[in-house]
Design goal:
TIM Barrel, 3 domains, about 450 residues, three-stranded antiparallel beta sheet, 16 helices, alpha/beta
Length: about 450
């Protein structure tokens, strides 16, 4: 029997003063019928808005429809700016009504959610000279189309090439979504024959214990496909860990609440994994505290009740989450809804989104600033996914970092012994001396070689 609060002894004297209200801001989740502020959704009922089928049906998949939805909310100048942005974008358009409703259309130019999904031509910057469309060289390490085997014991399974929304900053813009004016895509459509090749390769490699199921996005897999992939991998004795990767909870949490077949399929795979003493979890992707609402909390509560672990991987982005205050609030809000903050990625060198990248120094300062704000197991690690295929490196583990040229150097002895990998800060954020050197092609090569020499000369 629970104790009666009225009979409980008084609280002992406090050693600390009462906390300010903003200290608990992570608990203030958006609720109510917030979508009605969008004229196009003003008459949408709560039942409709919470239905994943309605969300999917009304997701915007072309530029003309997106801009038409924004009429009356934004100026003609903003619409023209966005139209120009999409003409130069490497990603096709797909935005859910839920996500569109979370954007502050009173100030769309600065809104951190708009920044991630709707490009403005006026904000675009030239791509970094060292950018590569497949910057992580995932295809180099593909023994089977759609399976990247880079780390000894882990493989990345790209099961499909579609998502519930398309993020501007997607590192897999070489394959995800339909072709754009800027990019012809590498095809990774759902194909059971291709999947069977993947399973056969994994069976043949006894060192593979950890499989990430991504794409694209696992949210787009049908329930029977969730089951097929899960059961196929669980049947391989040496596979011990599986992660279904999805942006879905951040952009369409309604699916978890109302697509019972999908959520039940995931639950059964998790439970079968537990029966076999294998770990099956969900990895997701929130970037800003405002992406977490009461609908999110209800969806995460449902997964939590079913014993499904959810971890989060954030991408560090300029004017989105590149401050200690914003990242700290995101970390605590994720923790509040039982999502474990796992990684914060330094933004990959992705075509068309140089305006979203930050300096490595920014990432280092953020990690230092949020460390100790909450429990260690809910504190993310800031990492650089080393361009060229070096894999994830702790941001602090560089061999050399020149803040003037923006060149940092990493090694990955457990992945590719002897190789050296370079990460590059955005040029427009460098000091004038660094910007001047990058303007000269001869100096560009010289800076890289200087960094390589400094890294190799550093004590180990």
């Amino acid at each position: 029997m629970a104790p009666d609060p009225e009979l409980a002894p008084p609280a002992p004297p406090a050693l600390k003063p009462p906390v300010a209200a903003e200290t608990l801001a992570h608990r203030d989740l958006l609720g109510g019928e917030f979508w009605r502020s969008i004229p196009a959704y003003a008459q949408v009922t709560r039942a409709e808005f919470l239905d994943h089928k309605w969300q999917a049906k009304h997701s915007i998949t072309n530029i003309a429809k997106l801009l038409a939805t924004l009429e009356g909310l934004v100026s003609e100048g903003f619409i023209a700016d966005a139209r120009g942005g999409f003409e130069r974008a490497p990603m096709s358009v797909r935005v859910s009504p839920y996500l569109l409703s979370l954007i502050d259309w009173r100030n769309p130019s600065e809104d951190p959610l708009r920044l991630q999904f709707i490009p403005l031509a006026s904000r675009l910057l030239p791509d970094h000279p060292r950018l590569d469309l497949d910057s992580l060289h995932e295809r180099v390490d593909m023994p089977v189309p759609g399976l990247t085997h880079r780390y000894t014991d882990k493989a990345l399974f790209l099961a499909l090439d579609t998502c519930p929304v398309y993020c501007r900053f997607c590192t897999r813009s070489y394959a995800v979504g339909i072709d754009t004016e800027e990019v012809s895509k590498f095809q990774l459509k759902v194909n059971v024959d291709r999947w069977e090749q993947t399973f056969a390769y994994i069976r043949s490699r006894p060192e593979l214990e950890d499989i990430v199921i991504s794409g694209g996005d696992a949210f787009q897999l049908r329930p029977e496909q969730i089951t097929l992939i899960g059961e196929s991998l669980l049947s391989i004795d040496h596979v011990r860990r599986m992660r279904y990767a999805t942006k879905g909870p951040a952009v369409m949490p309604q699916k978890i609440l109302t697509d019972d077949a999908w959520t039940d399929a995931l639950t059964r795979v998790v439970e079968e994994g537990r029966r076999r003493h294998k770990e099956v979890v969900l990895h997701t992707h929130f970037n800003h505290p405002r992406e977490i609402t009461e609908i999110t909390q209800a969806a995460m509560d449902k997964l939590f009740e079913r014993g499904i672990t959810v971890r989060n991987q954030t991408v560090l982005q300029r004017r989105v989450n590149d401050s200690i205050a914003t990242m700290g609030l995101l970390v605590r809000r994720l923790s509040y809804v039982n999502v474990h903050p796992y990684y914060v990625y330094m933004h990959d060198l992705v075509k068309g989104v140089e305006d979203l990248r930050t300096t490595l120094q920014t990432g280092l300062e953020i990690e230092k600033g949020i460390r100790g704000a909450t429990a260690g197991f809910n504190t993310p690690t800031v990492v650089v996914d080393a361009p060229g295929g070096g894999g994830k490196r702790d941001a602090h583990s560089f061999e050399h970092y020149d803040r003037t040229t923006g060149v940092s150097v990493y090694v990955a002895p457990a992945v590719h012994p002897g190789a050296v990998y370079f990460y590059f800060d955005p040029i427009d954020l460098l000091p004038a001396a660094g910007q001047a050197r990058w303007a000269d092609p001869i100096e560009q090569a010289r800076m890289v070689e200087e960094a390589r020499a400094a890294a190799l000369a550093a004590p180990h």
